[in-house]
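Box 3.1 A note on notation
Throughout this textbook, protein chains are presented in two layers. The first layer is the amino acid sequence; the second is a token string describing backbone geometry. Keep the layers aligned when reading.
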Amino acid sequence: MIRFDEALSTVLASARLLAPEKIDLQDSLGRILAEDVVSDIDMPPFDKSAMDGYACRKADIGTPLEILEIIPAGKSPQLAVGKNQCAKIMTGAAIPEGADCVVMVEHTRLDEADRVRFTAEETNTNICFKGEDIRAGQIVLRRSCRIRPQHIAVLATAGKARPLVSRRPRVGIIATGDELVEPAQTPPPFSIRNSNSYQLYAQVVAADSLPTYYGIAGDHEQEIDGRLRQALRENDVVLLSGGVSMGDFDLTPAIMTRNGIDIKFDAIAIKPGKPTHFGVGTGGYCFGLPGNPVSTFLQFEILVKPFLYKLMGHDLRPYRSQAILERDLPVKLSDRESWIPVSLTPDNRAVPLHYHGSAHINALDCADGFIVVPIGSQGFTRGTQVDVRHL
């Protein structure tokens, strides 16, 4: 049994970067950049007005100004601005030669001769200068960046209509256990519905990866073996849920080994999720996850999810915050660290959720995150400041 931080380090060190591909800009949300993005132009590409108003010489704003022309955005100025002259200008339009400021239209009035008079005591320049935001040749987004909506605008501005991104991992999901039936079925006596596979499917999608579900293999060695072989051929990563503990029908570890998977660890000092397995084969990677749904959920979030992003070249950094524990949290002394689901209140208090163990499937309904009780600790008292790892 190894500590969780060692398990995570082992998993991440095993990840080999997936090949890059070019995709359309509109399809790039959530993808991981596989190269630095360099702007091919200055931004702004010309001096432009930050306001609707009048472009003039700052030295002349105390005198009536003759209007030479109207300059809309997207059009070139036709005339240079001289002494006691101005051009009516729209936001985003190019600054005419000779002008060194833009007077906001709200700070002006027209006199009887249709000349512009400045009504405020002073004005800002109100000009966005060429290249003040971005210079041509400047790196605007770094390799390994996970593309968010605000990055789409940067990519478009830099002319990246087809950005180079890492290929998304293909992830096969296999359920084991004779007690399982699919959600559409009414479980016969002593059976339960298969929740893990659909939970994992959703988690894989949320991790910007591509899931394929291979069904329930039961507790039949030949069936598990066949589905695992197929899944390894067709995917980068395979997730098996169930069959990883010490029971007579826990067949997953032996079948992983038989299929060329070199198992790097087979137990983690963590609750829930101790019997988690991880292995590497010539054709891909394999996780053997516990059958209990809270264990499966947690091990995906803290182990599998960072691994999937690492395959794409991205270091996932979970959001953490400090909160005050709302009530006592006693925990039995253990050689494993305990991950306890909590909800967060608006006034930043962490409320431990009612949690009966790793099979308590609806314990996570209201969870905002987890707090970790270290090995050798017997928990925390009310009012303790705790570190919350957000979901």
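The chain has a mean pLDDT of 94. Residues 110 and 116 are 5 Å apart (CA to CA).
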